[in-house]
Every structure is written in structure tokens, then in C-alpha cells.
Amino acid sequence: MPDALLEFHEVRSGYGEAVVLDGVSLSLPANGSLALLGRNGVGKTTLLLTAMGFVGISRGAVRLAANDISRVAPHKRARLGLGWVPQEREIFPSLSVEENLGVAARPGRWDVTSIYALFPRLRERRANMGNQLSGGEQQMLALARTLMTNPSVLLLDEPFEGLAPIIIEELTAAVKKMTQDEGVAIILVEQHAEVALRLTQEAVILERGMVAHRAPSADLLRDGPTLERYLGLKLG
Ligand SMILES: Nc1ncnc2c1ncn2[C@@H]1O[C@H](COP(=O)(O)OP(=O)(O)OP(=O)(O)O)[C@@H](O)[C@H]1O
Asked: In a 10 Å sphere around its CB, with 0-12 CB exposed, 13-18 middle and 19+ buried, how is residue 120 labelled?
């Protein structure tokens, strides 16, 4: 098995007294990609928040490159290489696209030039203010801005939520290039299970805060009974 870049070891976490994740173990190798699936409320976002340290753990450990980061503050985890793309996007409305990118920049493979090559639409809109972008463009900018921090792992929380199919296509093409050609490791939380499975190597399905099923994404994509059982999906 390849060495884990990001690892959850029997993690329990939640909000105050409420336990949401219980005994979750998973492992993301360097250059790996993992789809995190499950019905509403099973704890997918909580898992990403736990990885970032916004939600604390009461048992188990979170490790990044074999270092225990369970008690490390979120901003330090970001510095260590975890990149968080929140569902709310959190674009600065009164900064231009290019300024939004600039505030996040840290040295590495990703800079404004390589980002514009990945997202030509952002180059076209580079002078637009954050509040002069469509929802899909904001989502691209949110992803691109996190990429500007040159993370070793990107945590994506429902990036395709509410977007038109044409924009989803553009975004998936960029994510594919980023992961398959450039080797950025990702955990992708997604309601669009088929899209997520096509973009990733491995998949984990959560149910009631526990790992209910894990499989290579390509296998799960063909496994109608499992998709129906845990996600209520019927294959077309
Ligand atoms: N800030 C919070 N305080 C208390 N409970 C919370 C908080 N955020 C989420 N929860 C609860 O934790 C559980 C898991 O929520 P979470 O958002 O992680 O699920 P999810 O799988 O991401 O769901 P969705 O697909 O709807 O986004 C839910 O029961 C939710 O009500």
C-alpha cells in the first residue's frame, strides 16, 4: 500500500456532546483522489472540517505525511499543506478575480499563469470583481484561490452544487487535469455521485458517521445495488 499523505485513524469527532464521526479510518496516498459519498447529514462536511481542525476530535488521530496533526490549529494545517475549498466559496466581493488569487499566493507550482491555463474563463474575467461573477465562476475562483496556496491535499466540499451542466463540465475538466496530470491529491465530497466517481480513484461511503463501504471508484460506478442501498441511486 502506498504511504498515506492524509490519514484518519479511528477518528471520533462532532459538535460538543454530539458525536458525528465515530471510528472513521481512511487513507489518502500522495497523488490520490478519494470521493466521499453518503446521504444528507451522514457527516461528510464534518469529516472535511475535522481534517482542517475546525471540528475537534475526541478519539483517534489525523495525520498528514505521517505527522499527528490532531491538535494543530486550522491555519497551521493550511500552512502544512491542507487546502480547504468551502461550500460557501467565500470570494472577496470587492476584490477582482486577480486580486482574489493574489491574496492567497504562496510559492510553488501554481501561480496566476498556471491557474489561468487551467481556468481560461478566469483569465477572461480577471478584472471582474468577485461579486460580478456567476455562481460557476465563483466556484472556479474558490478552487483556484485555494490552489494558489500550493496545497498537497485539496478538500473540496460539493463544488458542483447548484451549477449548470456546462459549468460542471468545465470544472470537472479542470479537476481532472489538476489531479491526473498534476498529481494534486483530493478528497471530494459530492452529491453528484457519478461525477465524483468518474473523477476519483477510490471511494468511501459514509453512513451515520461511519465508513459503510469502500471501493475503487470505477468498481463502485458499476455496482448498482451498493449505489442504491447507500445513496438511493438507480443506475440509468
Ligand atoms: N455546527 C454544528 N453543530 C451541531 N451539529 C452539527 C453542526 N453542523 C452539522 N451538524 C450535524 O452533524 C451531522 C452531520 O452533518 P454534515 O454537514 O457533516 O453532513 P453531510 O453529510 O455533509 O450532509 P450534507 O450532504 O447535507 O451536506 C448532521 O446531523 C448535522 O445536523
From this structure: exposed
| Spatial distance between the Cα atoms of 22 and 219, rounded to a whole number of angstroms | 26
Q: Residue 234 — very low, low, confident or very high, per pLDDT cuts 50/70/90?
A: confident
- State which of 13, 17, 20, 37 you would mutate to test the pocket of ligand 1, scoring each by most atoms of that ligand within 8 A of its C-beta: 20
The per-residue pLDDT for range 75-108, each reduced to its tens digit, is 999 999 999 998 877 889 999 999 999 998 999 9
For atom 9 of ligand 1, which residue has the closest CA? 46
The Cα–Cα gap between 47 and 206 comes to 10
Q: Is 20 in the pocket of ligand 1 (CB under 6 A)?
A: yes
Q: What is the mean pLDDT of residues 210-218?
A: 97
CATH of the domain at 92: 3.40.50.300
DSSP three-state, residue 204: strand
- Judge contact between 200 and 192, C-beta under 8 A: no
Domain that holds residue 133: 4-231
Give the ipTM. 0.95
Closest of 114, 231, 128, 127 to residue 181, by C-alpha: 114
Please provide residue 113's backbone torsions phi and psi, each rounded to the nearest 5 degrees: -65, -50
- Let me know if residue 48 belongs to a domain: yes
